[in-house]
């Protein structure tokens, strides 16, 4: 009614057509190249993929010429490796319900070819750098007598998804053969693994697959020998993960441009010598002018004076250009903060960007690393029990035993978290003001990193040190021997 009274015309329906920048496998490769940190690979990649005006204006696409020194900071790899190290070193132990599988798991961990923390670390690194991936469990007794666990990053993994649920994982591997590159697609499904060999998009026969790879389809018990893993959901590609580097690529590109310009300013800002031609050093044998060395005897040649007093004016002039050091340092600080924003604190990397900031501000900045770490461990607490169960059941298949059902649980240490110091301060302040019981103090401080027996023993120890003893309340009419 109001619309008709004001005579408001409804907005016309407008269709918008957007072109996707690159498919998901190529997007995953882009993040992996940033993680690899090779300046030559970055230059080649963006020179070949600069298919729109946005990418074409990026530093790694637009910077041309042999004289331009392109420097990569290496920051993406440092960020991913640091987070992966924080998580994998914080993995305390693996427990099994009713101790079913404890002895078998200890036997697996004792094998020199099995390092579970390293397996977890590679998975975290792969998921953070490429977006997602999956652990593949293989059996090859010619190499190892226990299951072989490998992590495949997002560019080599495809999912069979039904109703938003992953029902199968395809692992893609390139195999050089007679001047060609063939692709093996390992189709991991529940209770079976099938192999397919492709020459480009042409499916080769099972006989050819056997001749080239020696692989046969296998059938086993009713479980998966592959476990997918992703940390963040990708809003651009449905049912795929998102790398922590994905949203920061423009920032990393600008950061590299700033560093390269900074170094170029140093190179161009060296002391310049203006030397008359008759004073330029010459070769002692043929009298030719010596070529200049930009790191030794750089100079600029000027014509000698034709005036009568040329002897007096023909002299070497030294000029020192002005380099805007403060502007470069300020830009470096701000772009570095922009690259790390929302992911981790500069303090985690040993960088102090705010020497004048208060201690509380520094502590709040450091909390962001704890939030990111908790997000990763939260995902691992759900995924790793599935991985451990699959490894244990695969080991049962290898040893010819009946496949058992396992219920493992992984525990990450709370004291390894970056925010442990702030938690100690908070609990200590509450305890000093007598507003928190000893039981609550111990529970809040150590959380799930310790079992109930340890927490109970810690509570008794603290009470004994404080002189607190707990006795049963005497019943009515009961004599008390003083």
- What is the N-to-C order of secondary-structure elements (H for helix, E for strand)? HHHHHHEHHEEEEEEEHEEHEEHEHHEHHH
- Output the structural class: alpha+beta
Outline the biggest β-sheet: 6 strands, antiparallel
Beta-strand percentage range: 15-25%
Brief characterization of the structure:
Helices cover 42% and strands 17% of the residues. The chain has 16 helices and 14 strands. Strands 4, 5, 6, 7, 8 and 9 form a 6-stranded antiparallel sheet that branches. A 3-stranded antiparallel sheet has the order 3-2-10, with helices on one face.
What are the defining features of this structure?
alpha+beta, three-stranded antiparallel beta sheet, 482 residues
Describe it for me?
There is one protein chain. By secondary structure, the chain is an alpha+beta fold. The protein has helices at 2-6, 24-36, 39-49, 53-56, 59-62, 75-88, 102-110, 116-130, 206-213, 249-268, 310-313, 325-340, 359-399, 420-432, 438-446, 452-466, and strands at 91-96, 132-138, 148-153, 157-162, 165-177, 180-189, 192-199, 202-203, 218-219, 226-230, 272-276, 300-302, 317-319, 408-412.
